[in-house]
Amino acid sequence: MNLKYRITDNIGEVMNLNYKTFKGNKSEEFAHAADVRRIVFIDEQEFSYDLDDVDAYAHHAVVYDDSTPIAAGRFFFDENNIPHIGRVAVLKEYRRYGVGRYLMEVLEKLAKEIGAEYVTLGAQLRASGFYEKLGYIPYGDLYYEEYCEHINMKKYL
């Protein structure tokens, strides 16, 4: 998949968004996703880990501005066949321009193509408003991943 999408940043420069989807963690594209996730989750947000065993069987998406990787996320079914979107990351300088929304549209489309009727995610509480604007509904109790409050959210596709 490689849908072109053009948006303008706050300086008026046009970003030429495109994306690639793939399965597993053995490709050049996964290295791009891992770089984006490291920058966002480890360098910026100071989580102690990011990569895990799920990466080997998850479906991933990387969003590029031309050829520069700027956002990444993944979709997978867990051991109970519950569909999850996760590890949604957008580089700081690309936030607030619709890149996150674009990435979520890509992941939701991918999930639907693979057979999901709905998706769940564990949102950082500070990002839950973003997901609510996209139609996600919070459920359950707040919980912590490392030091950060999270809430489960769900959306029917």
Overview of the structural elements:
With 157 residues, this protein is an alpha+beta fold. It has one domain: Aminopeptidase. 25% of the residues lie in helices and 41% in strands. It starts with a strand and ends with a strand.
What is this structure, in a nutshell?
Helix content is 25%, strand content 41%. The chain has 157 residues and is an alpha+beta fold.
List keywords for this structure.
157 residues; globular; three-stranded antiparallel β-sheet; alpha+beta; single chain; Aminopeptidase; five-stranded antiparallel β-sheet
Task: Give me the secondary-structure topology.
Layout: E1 5-8, E2 14-23, H1 28-44, E3 59-65, E4 68-77, E5 83-90, H2 99-114, E6 118-124, H3 128-133, E7 137-145, E8 148-156
Antiparallel strand pairs: 1-2, 2-3, 3-4, 4-5, 6-8, 7-8
